[in-house]
Automatic annotation (TrEMBL):
InterPro entries: Acyl_CoA_acyltransferase, Diverse_Substrate_AcTransf, GNAT_dom. CDD domains: NAT_SF. Coiled coil: none annotated. It holds the Pfam family Acetyltransf_1. Residues 1-148 form the N-acetyltransferase domain. Transmembrane segments: none annotated. Belongs to the acetyltransferase family. GO terms for molecular function: N-acetyltransferase activity. Keywords: Acyltransferase, Transferase. This is GNAT family N-acetyltransferase.
Length: 148
């Protein structure tokens, strides 16, 4: 079952974020905390939205975290920050359901499209996006960031 995330889901959500970081060979880089995620996602001005995939037992086995960004060329866009399905649940269609749910949210909010990133070596994810969505995977842009 896919549903909107709740505060009480955050410990399991953070565990999945850490699982993703390990998969992406960056496990030591996760600095976020449940408390920070609670403040940032469930306060008066949420910085992100969250969908979760729940198992029949009620465990969180997948997540999709999104937020809104603005493109001067395209207008309001929904940005998929992370989509994670725990390893034991992959291949059961949960990733597609989560992805489709974020797309539906973007359409509901009158966004002009959805954007996300994928590591160039993550062949399973790249194949997923190509198989289901005929996604435009642009290799021209270089990602940049500054940490404060």
């Amino acid at each position: 079952m896919i549903r909107e995330g709740r505060i009480e889901d955050l410990p399991q959500v953070l565990a999945l974020i850490k699982e993703l970081a390990v998969y992406e060979k960056a496990g030591e880089e996760v600095e976020n905390t449940v408390e920070q995620m609670e403040r940032d996602g469930f306060g008066p001005n949420p910085a992100y939205g969250l969908f979760v995939a729940e198992s029949e037992k009620g465990d969180i086995v997948g997540i999709a975290i999104y937020y809104y960004r603005y493109s001067t060329w395209k207008g309001r866009r929904i940005y998929l920050e992370d989509i994670v399905v725990t390893e034991s649940e992959r291949g059961n269609g949960l990733g597609k359901k989560l992805f489709d749910t974020v797309i539906a949210k973007g359409k509901e909010e009158k966004c002009t499209g959805m954007v996300w990133q994928v590591l160039d070596w993550n062949e399973p994810a790249i194949n997923f996006y190509k198989k289901y969505y005929d996604a435009d995977l642009d290799s021209e842009w270089i990602n940049c960031s500054i940490n404060f």
